[in-house]
């Protein structure tokens, strides 16, 4: 079966079903997120997704990923780089599937311990049918928290702004009192009330609790307003914070990517030297523009 054998929407729904089946086989707690789950609760307009998102109980994340890899799924080639928000997932691809599976061990915007945030979502989970297969998913309120956090990651994108509005309207007009209370409970238990402060105000959900520390607030605000430039900005902050003895090494790493580390799907498909230089030049241009925007925006 090739990646063109079935449509993206069908593939993504089947990927949710596969992810749930693997979790059941292992006895791992897993929650399907976003995509068909959000559409089921009318928190997002139905549309094809490029990936299937699944949140795994953190303690068994590595075990789950190994099971996925045993079925032919693998990560893209690429090196680990600095980030403004913590690494939160691994993206898996398969030669025969046109979609990805994003396996999360935590969800950005929650500042509680990852296991505690997972537990509060799991405690009110619902069973939802995806591709005629039962999958575990956050409740309607839990899914609204996830969609709101996802929308807040990019406060400029039209798609994210649309999702933000849909969740806000649902909280105000469609949610029952108990569902609104549950949204508040999950947000506060997961230490996401500060992240979702606008929703608390717009939907009159009660006082906003500042449950993120100053550094978490700074990094989240920087990421959500500069998501397109986040990689370059993260490199700059990493180099600036490094000891003087290590700065030259990190500057070189920020500037240069080896052929072996160039992002690609197939580890054996080493890019040509021409492809390497095209990639480097494009990356330098993009990085310079992002850095310039960052420093101009600080004034």
Can you walk through the features of this model?
There is one protein chain. This protein is an alpha+beta fold. It folds into 2 domains: 8-212, Beta Polymerase, domain 2; 226-297, no CATH class. Helices cover 51% and strands 11% of the residues. It contains 12 helices and 7 strands. The strands form 2 sheets. A 5-stranded mixed sheet has the order 1-2-5-4-3. Helix 5 packs antiparallel against helix 6. The radius of gyration is 20 Å and the shape is globular. The protein starts with 7 loop residues before the first helix and ends with a helix. The mean pLDDT is 90.
Question: In a nutshell, what does this entry contain?
Answer:
This protein has 299 residues and is of the alpha+beta class.
Helices, strands, pairings?
Layout: H1 8-26, E1 30-33, H2 35-40, E2 51-56, H3 61-69, E3 74-75, E4 89-93, E5 100-104, H4 114-123, E6 126-130, E7 133-137, H5 140-152, H6 158-174, H7 177-189, H8 197-202, H9 214-225, H10 230-241, H11 247-255, H12 273-297
Helix pairs in contact: 5-6, 5-7, 10-11, 10-12
Order of helices and strands: HEHEHEEEHEEHHHHHHHH
The overall average pLDDT, rounded, is 90
**Poorly predicted segments:** none
- The top level CATH class name of the largest domain: Alpha Beta
Keywords:
299 residues; Beta Polymerase, domain 2; alpha+beta; two-stranded antiparallel ribbon; 2 domains
């Amino acid at each position: 079966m090739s990646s063109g054998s079935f449509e993206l929407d069908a593939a993504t729904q089947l990927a949710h079903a596969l992810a749930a089946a693997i979790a059941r086989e292992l006895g791992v707690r897993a929650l399907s997120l976003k995509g068909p789950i959000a559409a089921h609760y009318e928190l997002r307009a139905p549309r094809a997704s490029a990936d299937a998102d699944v949140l795994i109980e953190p303690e068994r994340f590595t075990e789950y990923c190994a099971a996925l890899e045993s079925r032919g799924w693998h990560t893209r080639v690429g090196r680990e780089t600095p980030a403004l928000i913590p690494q939160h997932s691994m993206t898996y691809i398969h030669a025969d599937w046109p979609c990805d599976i994003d396996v999360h061990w935590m969800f950005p915007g929650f500042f509680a311990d990852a296991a505690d945030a997972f537990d509060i979502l799991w405690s009110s989970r619902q069973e939802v049918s995806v591709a005629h297969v039962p999958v575990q998913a956050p409740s309607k309120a839990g899914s609204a928290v996830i969609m709101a956090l996802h929308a807040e990651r990019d406060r400029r994108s039209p798609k994210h702004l649309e999702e933000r509005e849909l969740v806000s309207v649902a909280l105000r007009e469609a949610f029952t009192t108990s569902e609104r209370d549950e949204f508040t409970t999950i947000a506060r238990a997961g230490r996401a009330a500060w992240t979702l402060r606008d929703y608390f105000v717009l939907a009159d959900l009660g006082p906003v609790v500042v449950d993120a520390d100053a550094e978490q607030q700074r990094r989240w605000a920087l990421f959500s307003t500069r998501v397109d430039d986040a990689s370059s900005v993260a490199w700059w902050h990493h180099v600036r914070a490094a000891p003087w003895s290590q700065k030259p090494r990190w500057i070189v790493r920020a500037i240069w990517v080896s052929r072996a580390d160039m992002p690609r799907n197939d580890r054996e498909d080493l890019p040509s030297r021409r492809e390497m230089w095209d990639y480097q030049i494009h990356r330098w241009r993009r990085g310079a523009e992002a850095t310039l925007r960052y420093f101009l925006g600080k004034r």
